[in-house]
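Sample entry (154 residues):
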Amino acid sequence: MDEQPHIMIVDARFYEGVADELLKGVLAEFDRVGASHERISVPGVFEVPAAIKMAIRSMDFFAGRRRFDGYVALGCVIRGETTHYDYVCGESARKLQDLACEHTLALGYGILTCENHAQAMERARVDRKNKGGAVARTCLEMLAVKRHFHLYPR
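Predicted structure, serialized as tokens:
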């Protein structure tokens, strides 16, 4: 039997309630398929790409450690009264896309960009839109794409 995928989950904790709901959806999906995971928490969405880059870079120094087969980025940015929202959304999304393309990562992008907290919870809650579950499935589907191109051995 093939070894199940090992996924890194990075969750931004700035909006803890939203992050917790997203995480519930991700974990339920990974439990359903038997994927193992490691979770790293960061303060906010802006820090998510750096945490993923650190994980990738750490493999250069600790070759004996199991590599991650995929990555899930979770968090939420809610529009405020300043342009901070635009910078955090744009820069974090751009860098995550850069990492995915540069390193051929199977990446599930679960950064919610919302107008208000109610909108964020509607998207995050597992009994509503369950974006966490959708993001976990995206990561697994991208692993299948990597497998198609012989970039993922399992």
